């Protein structure tokens, strides 16, 4: 579904990514793990086009999309849940969701998507008319995921979707993610919640200082030294 | 405050000295140099408010205008006392602009961002129309002082006042404004302003008395504006017309200068003022009639290349080097 | 006398009761954890304590003084500091300046000692390498750490932390928890109240936990006891964690 | 690219510089451009027709140094000093407008260089005691007096005068003098109100003016408001017997803009193509005629400007200022500003612009007469004073309704 | 009599105010979306005025028909300016864009002077006069009023009811958020700027319908100033608010004349301006974000 080769990117003059290679199979959950500041968010932003890549290539659904601007990628079925949510704070939950279905493709599936979203997050249905900016941190996170689903994506880049969610909800969100995968969605997941994400992922990469340090199937990664060093604090 | 922190004034003083020397030694250069200094002083004074607080006062020129009237009124009423009329005028100018700034500050500084900016346009325009409408201080006919000054002080002295003394005073005002800026920057007030410029609500929550610092910066800046109006306008031009001294064009120029140099920096307004003044003057000498057509694209290119101003750019570039102490 | 005392504090937004008649006491030097499902009113409670909102009903007493209606900038000097769930740095200022501002206005330091203090705090929190970076260039996590340093630099009597550790990896979490322990013990007066959804952090940190649910206090007590309470598991944890 | 005028043939001749800050950009750029062309015509005449300035046994070619003052008071001061100190200019043509002239005066006075005002009409410039500042154009106090004389002479019945003008120092000076003069002539001022600069709608004012039922209206200020005033008089169908507007009607653009609405509208002008000033007229008065004749002036103007645009009075004023320097220099037989200033007190001559004579005390122009023009059948006619006139006044002017029917102010 | 005057002055004020309103909408729009304070605003009004003037003078195109022409021309102009300059400043500090718009304004004025000269031009397009009691007003002004109101209404509908209008609002609130929804942020910026300029240039035509004389390359300054004030009064970033505020401003300016005229020894016209600005301040004190502004 997605192939990233030799990706380099950064901010201003500072280079953050130094040649990242990734492959995400269709209908799988692929996790990117790594310590804070490793460049996970930057990788996702570069893939999505919010930061333009300095070097390397990105192929999505069999097409080269390296320099395609974000909105064109959304049209092609790729979207992203940003770290920090980035909702439209002055608009209601409903309006946020409507805008999620901005592209033509998404508009056609509006009703279905809305139903899906409301079953996943009933809280949003209750709060249709509340301004997004006044929702609690966790509620906003739900809305961010929901809005991404409204774009009728084939693949979602998720940046720390469980952040700020209550434990019970975290479990639910992970369940949801794996359910979405089962329905055919492809997911690239960045998480600090390593073990929960490894529980649902099919394949994982570990990033360190802007490079892929290890990769492998979930079981391989679970046992790797890298993971122990970063996450268990050995 | 240690003397070390005044190092940042060194490049500025150097430039002032060079300008003074050029003005005094090269024939015909005195007025042009003073012309550059007008913009430097304007930028330096405005920066204390605009640069340090991030609030834009579109009505800033009203303080220059009021200063100009302060001096004019003093000359009209106290010229018989001799030259003391001038210090009286300076004091009156400062008092008048400070009073206005307190009134405006108390009312308008509650507004944020563009709302504040434009409310202050209202103050400036409102004031002008009030003068004209009620024929206060001569109304639209303004106050013309040259004859008066020449009678009171004699032709020689009157000319000397307008063509030299006022100019030297302008240098002094520009320097004092810069010195004030340095002092503020290195004091708690500088940090308080930095915080409120970035996020006023967060600054408030951190225990910063935002209103107090805003008003302090506003008043200080207005006082310098009053001085510039009194000196560079009334004393130098020998007349005051409301349409001239409440002309919003000067506010816009002042903003341009501050932005060109780098808002909130110490040296920025000087760089901005010099760039703007020198370009404007020499283009009009070299390409009379089309200079604005050339100036405008030059300004655009500069701001696109240095969105945070020329000094802003330099300061960033030198942040971790030896030069950093001299650039603020 | 408790350092902080809330008496039947209520905050409504339209029809929604975000904080519903909460009473709470926090002792000096105490480590209190506040947990609860999303939208249960934790951040709103902080907003009431720090003065971002005023309660519709009830009283807030801090250090013996009624601060119910005091504006935020009058509360800080009394020794109240907080971080924001969604960070609010002074973007164009550098990290060191951000923290020094905290020391200056929160702790009443003069400029030079505030800068020195700020350097110390950056080191403590572990972001001294970011010292001269503009705050707006930090990642969300780095911003939250900077906010923590800034809050610490204010030398508060009471520190309100709102999800500073979300998204942080375990080794860093351990470091921050050590740090909080230390300031609580060394600078005796410090009380830390923390909202966090990370159970391993809460269990390591808190002596006492308050669980909020739909704006109300569901239960309050010793950490392990509370977190193994069936009702808490039901509404918040989903499954047993301790 | 120093802007200079070079004449090649006599390399031996010394060069005498005249200098000018000109408003080539900014709000006075229209006037500035006209002034420049006028000066260039006069200089061309001095160098090429007159054969240079003969002072003693020397012959001077005159050259013009000019810079753009951007209609800006701060720039003016720098330019005056640059002209005086760097370019060695001793004879300066003052900037346009009273304000800028006043800003320049202290510097010129201190440097001891002469400054000749061709665009600063306000009387008070000359009440400040600047010895080196003299005036070529008629002062503001004279602008509307001729029109009142005219009305009185053609219609002794007309009594009610309304004044409606822009609130600035120039118009105030004009209408203060006009109001007093009107009372002397026995008129009654039934309306006297101002409007601020930059108005878009005068209706409230005109509403009130109409209620005062004036016989004649005098008013205006600058170009834009003058056009607006007439346009709105037409909109609101306020009919009076005669209207005289400052500044605007003197320019061809006035008629272009208003079309037949401009028919019958009068206005004062410092000068107008077709005035009867010439060697004959000078002889009658027993004074010298100096400078190009009107025909020469028009021809040279076309050459210099390179356009078909006819010269406005700004061009003639500026030319006259240059000529007055030349005439005075030759009279004084000296290029020392003090000598020339001395000579200026005594000279009286006529040029294409009319008579030039100043009050020795103040330097104020007292020789020159304003003319009154009126738009008649699409052309600007000079109707007053009778000596300069080339047409009779059309009085009363046609009503707006008549004009809509196609009536013109022609018999 | 005073009553008569008041009625007719309010009537004239309403006509004038509608034109003021449209002449402010573009400014408000650009500020709302891009946070750009367009200090060169008036120069675009001027371009519109000249468009109407030349189309009428050269081709006898009635000014009312110049409205769409000016809109399209303005959009093109705005597009070019955005691509050439403003695009690069989208992320720069807010005030640096102010410098850029200042320079652009100067550039446009001076270029216009080069092409069109510095004469004060005008035209007269007579389509008759309406007599209504004490009110005498040419139909052109009525037309300006009607056209202004229709334009304002259409813009309002466009903003609130169309998808594009909503996308603009989304971009205003969160740029990255808009991008993940598939909104082309750059296109929205370009579009808003171009449209803002387009509306402004178009308003120049309406201005000339109202005042067909005194058209000059430097005429814009007064409009800039007034537009600023009106934009704030209406609530920045709210084009519809700008229209209503313009309307009120016109009413206020002309209406207060009648009352101020009764004070002896003053210049009532100048005082109307004074009163209008006091009115602005009072409104802002009561409602710091203008009549129709949200939170800032
Ligand atoms: N807008 C920015 N400007 C400059 N530098 C940035 C910016 N955003 C991130 N960085 C830097 O890039 C590096 C990688 O950041 P990134 O956000 O990709 O890390 P991450 O792996 O997502 O970390 P985290 O787990 O904390 O989210 C960090 O050193 C960070 O400081
Ligand atoms: N300004 C407001 N207007 C309307 N509703 C609000 C406002 N602020 C908060 N709320 C609502 O009040 C409830 C409590 O919000 P709060 O932010 O306190 O939750 P929280 O416990 O911090 O949740 P989280 O763990 O998700 O951050 C939420 O349902 C939220 O939507
Ligand atoms: Mg990240
Ligand atoms: Mg919260």
TrEMBL record, chain A:
InterPro entries: AAA+_ATPase (IPR003593), ABC_transporter-like_ATP-bd (IPR003439), ABC_transporter-like_CS (IPR017871), BCAA_Transport_ATP-bd_LivF (IPR052156), P-loop_NTPase (IPR027417). One of its GO terms (molecular function) is ATP binding. PROSITE patterns: ABC_TRANSPORTER_1, ABC_TRANSPORTER_2. Pfam families: ABC_tran (PF00005). SMART domains: AAA. Keywords: Amino-acid transport, ATP-binding, Nucleotide-binding, Transport. Belongs to the ABC transporter superfamily. This is ABC transporter ATP-binding protein. It comes from Geoglobus acetivorans.
UniProtKB/TrEMBL annotation, chain B:
InterPro entries: ABC_transp_permease (IPR001851), LivM-like (IPR043428). It comes from the Archaea. The chain crosses the membrane at residues 12-30, 36-53, 60-79, 85-109, 157-185, 215-235, 255-278, 285-306. CDD domains: TM_PBP1_LivM_like (cd06581). The keyword Transmembrane applies. It is a multi-pass membrane protein. Keywords: Cell membrane, Membrane, Transmembrane, Transmembrane helix. It is found in: Cell membrane. Pfam families: BPD_transp_2 (PF02653). This is Branched-chain amino acid ABC transporter permease.
From TrEMBL, chain C:
It comes from the Archaea. Gene3D superfamilies: P-loop containing nucleotide triphosphate hydrolases. Keywords: ATP-binding, Nucleotide-binding, Transport. Residues 4-239 form the ABC transporter domain. The keyword Nucleotide-binding applies. InterPro entries: AAA+_ATPase (IPR003593), ABC_AA/LPS_Transport (IPR051120), ABC_transporter-like_ATP-bd (IPR003439), P-loop_NTPase (IPR027417). GO terms for molecular function: ATP binding. The keyword ATP-binding applies. This is ABC transporter ATP-binding protein. It comes from Geoglobus acetivorans.
TrEMBL record, chain E:
It is found in: Cell membrane. InterPro entries: ABC_transp_permease, BCAA_transport_permease. Keywords: Amino-acid transport, Cell membrane, Membrane, Transmembrane, Transmembrane helix, Transport. The chain crosses the membrane at residues 12-37, 44-61, 67-86, 98-116, 136-159, 193-215, 227-252, 259-286. Coiled coil: none annotated. The keyword Membrane applies. It is a multi-pass membrane protein. It comes from the Archaea. Pfam families: BPD_transp_2 (PF02653). Belongs to the binding-protein-dependent transport system permease family. LivHM subfamily. This is Branched-chain amino acid ABC transporter permease. It comes from Geoglobus acetivorans.
